[in-house]
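Reopening this ticket.

The earlier resolution said the output was attached, but the attachment link was broken on my side. Pasting everything inline this time so it's all in one place.
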Amino acid sequence: MNAPDLSRLEALRIDTILAGANLAAMRPRFAALASRHENGTAPRAVSAFQLFQTPAALAARLVSALALRSGARVLEPSAGLGRLLDALAPFHPAEVVAVEMAAACAGELYAQARPRVLLVQANFLSLTPATLGTFDAVAMNPPFHMRDDIRHILHARAFLKPGGTLAALCLDTPHRAAALCPLAASWEPIPAGAFGQEGTRVATVLLTLKN
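Inline output:
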């Protein structure tokens, strides 16, 4: 075996040693993540891009901001796994239209027993009031990627009946504030830790819009 071959083998041996050391260093982290699944503290894992479920307490606050009246028709345009649907249930709306694009999330929603909830698997931005109708209220935690929250919130506003209310979460950034705060009836910053159990620590805003 010539010298270049020996040098190549030695380099591979060193790479293998380093890789083993890296794996050993990461093993405690993997063990900690595994234990979170065992003790119930891990975020729900579903194959859907940008899925961060609304924490239950925050979902309740968001729905309370709608001041729902009996017989209301409500739109939930980013239904995910149903956290906002859970928060809406005690108010007994006449109908909730829940839109979800991700197939994995939509499949879970279809498997749930939710009276007076109509499920629509679609990209919300492709829908119009002509297809879904108009609503007394909109409750939403839209996707945040690439300022999608701005687009989704402005699009959802068009679905409100006169006098209707929209309550939504968006990222707390200057771009969102510039686009949405001037339109908002209320603007409440939410601490970054609110989504900690859902796998992210982003700072958000709970806002309402009136029609």
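Reporter confirms the inline version is readable. The chain has two domains: 1-41, 56-210. The beta strands are 73-76, 95-100, 117-121, 135-140, 160-171, 186-190, 204-210.
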